[in-house]
Amino acid sequence: MATRTDLDGRPIKPITICMIGAGGFIGSHLCEKLMSETPHKVLALDVYNDKIKHLLEPDSLPWAGRIQFHRLNIKHDSRLEGLIKMADLTINLAAICTPADYNTRPLDTIYSNFIDALPVVKYCSENNKRLIHFSTCEVYGKTIGSFLPKDSPLRQDPAYYVLKEDTSPCIFGSIEKQRWSYACAKQLIERLIYAEGAENGLEFTIVRPFNWIGPRMDFIPGIDGPSEGVPRVLACFSNNLLRHEPLKLVDGGQSQRTFVYIKDAIEAVLLMIENPDRANGHIFNVGNPNNEVTVRQLAEMMTKVYAKVSGEPSLDSPTVDISSKEFYGEGYDDSDKRIPDMTIINKQLGWNPKTSLWDLLESTLTYQHRTYAEAIKKSIAKPTAS
Ligand SMILES: NC(=O)c1ccc[n+]([C@@H]2O[C@H](COP(=O)([O-])OP(=O)(O)OC[C@H]3O[C@@H](n4cnc5c(N)ncnc54)[C@H](O)[C@@H]3O)[C@@H](O)[C@H]2O)c1
Ligand SMILES: O=C(O)[C@H]1O[C@H](OP(=O)(O)OP(=O)(O)OC[C@H]2O[C@@H](n3ccc(=O)[nH]c3=O)[C@H](O)[C@@H]2O)[C@H](O)[C@@H](O)[C@@H]1O
């Protein structure tokens, strides 16, 4: 491998990374990137490894020896501190992060996102290890603009909706709206990490992902996850498309999101890993402000893209409305709009997302069709065959 240099032209030294939650969606892409493009070593910690199996076996892979899987639950495993000590940098991705859980399993959500992350922060701080912690854009909650009258011209003013790391407030709903249990737990762990930095000198970076999507996100219910499970929107809509069912629009699909391609976002994380002087002490929005759609528009675009990549015609009525109470149950609430301000990440790391929503959906839905279409056909055919 040719000498790789950081953004300031200095050679990058190979490091060891303790990656917690490495077997998930983001972790699998980050491991792939680190193995194929860098000399760094990864201690990959998770309770599952299905999404990184292709990186672990066979032993003849070019990066054999640079990635080591440790099956452990950070809730109760005494190996955690030792593994953090063995590494130069810890990246914590472990969390419950599907909205269907926030209002139905609020205790698990709060424990996972706050309590279970505490020892990780503590061990990093006590052992003087750098930490990159994955938070969320949900810490912003609702926009200020959402509280203005519907017809107020101020709603068009970016000052009322663009989300800035250092100035935007965090606006959550009332306590009975348990949807905010996740955002609130993430906010508190951010504050704790920030305080460890201020009082004890912890070297940290906090990442706030804005709807990163791509292959291997979540699961397809009944195929590689529970039949009754409710994954995030990309997998919900993929599942509907694969099964030729209408896509369900929660409360009319009026909420807005910006989607960024996982491969673009992983470039940003690699810059953080390899440029500690520029990343330490910062909180970074990582998203694509150019890819904004309502959930209804996302459904319409995914329907068109899927017809193109599968060669199968779309349904005459491709979407159906459903109330949030019916879909998620009591206590659900929603973020109205999520546009990331990109000033800080641009200034510190010179990062910009590249991939348009159409292109990222085309490559992702090609993957979904190739990976799941046959399995779905078989699962649908099963009851009549027996
Ligand atoms: N995907 C996104 O767009 C997005 C957006 C905002 C925030 N995030 C944050 O990024 C992180 C990773 O998200 P993801 O999309 O890859 O989710 P994911 O669910 O695919 O990955 C999380 C991984 O953590 C593991 N894990 C959870 N609890 C654990 C424990 N106690 N011990 C060991 N492993 C455990 C899970 O098994 C899973 O493999 C999360 O902290 C999430 O809140 C992701
Ligand atoms: O990805 C992120 O940046 C963050 O936001 C997500 O939250 P959210 O965007 O609300 O979750 P999705 O499941 O992706 O839902 C997006 C929107 O689609 C809607 N939706 C979802 C599924 C569905 O079948 N139909 C539908 O209309 C939801 O109500 C919501 O308005 C999750 O909280 C986290 O993974 C993460 O922290």
Which structural class do you get from the secondary structure elements? alpha/beta
Dominant shape: globular
Major β-sheet, in short?
7 strands, parallel
Query: Which ranges are low-confidence, i.e. pLDDT below 50, for 5 or more consecutive residues?
Result: none
Number-wise, the strands total 15
Lateral strand order in the biggest sheet: 3-2-1-4-5-7-12
Question: Considering DSSP H and I runs of 4 or more, what fraction of the residues is helical?
Answer: 25-40%
Q: How large is the share of residues in beta strands?
A: 15-25%
Could you tell me how far the N terminus lies from the C terminus, measured between alpha carbons in angstroms? 55 Å
Helix tally equals 14
Name the average pLDDT: 97
Question: What multimeric state do the chains show?
Answer: single chain
Ligand kinds: nicotinamide-adenine-dinucleotide, uridine-5'-diphosphate-glucuronic acid
Gyration radius, to the nearest Å?
A: 21 Å
H/E topology pattern: EHEHEHEHHHEEHEEHEEEHHEEHEHEHH
Protein name: NAD-dependent epimerase/dehydratase domain-containing protein
InterPro entries: Arna-like_SDR_e, Epimerase_deHydtase, Lipid_A_modif_metabolic_enz, NAD(P)-bd_dom_sf
Organism: Hibiscus sabdariffa
Keywords: NAD
Topology:
Elements (H helix, E strand, L loop, with lengths): L15 E5 L4 H13 L3 E6 L6 H4 L10 E5 L7 H8 L2 E4 L6 H4 L3 H8 L4 H9 L3 E5 L27 E2 L17 H20 L3 E6 L2 E2 L19 H10 L4 E4 L5 E3 L1 E2 H13 L1 H4 L2 E5 L5 E3 H16 L8 E4 L1 H5 L10 E2 L2 H7 L7 H29 L1
Parallel strand pairs: 1-2, 1-4, 2-3, 4-5, 5-7, 6-15, 7-12, 8-11, 9-14
Antiparallel strand pairs: 10-13
Bound molecules: nicotinamide-adenine-dinucleotide (NAD) and uridine-5'-diphosphate-glucuronic acid.
The site of nicotinamide-adenine-dinucleotide has 23 residues, from helix 1.
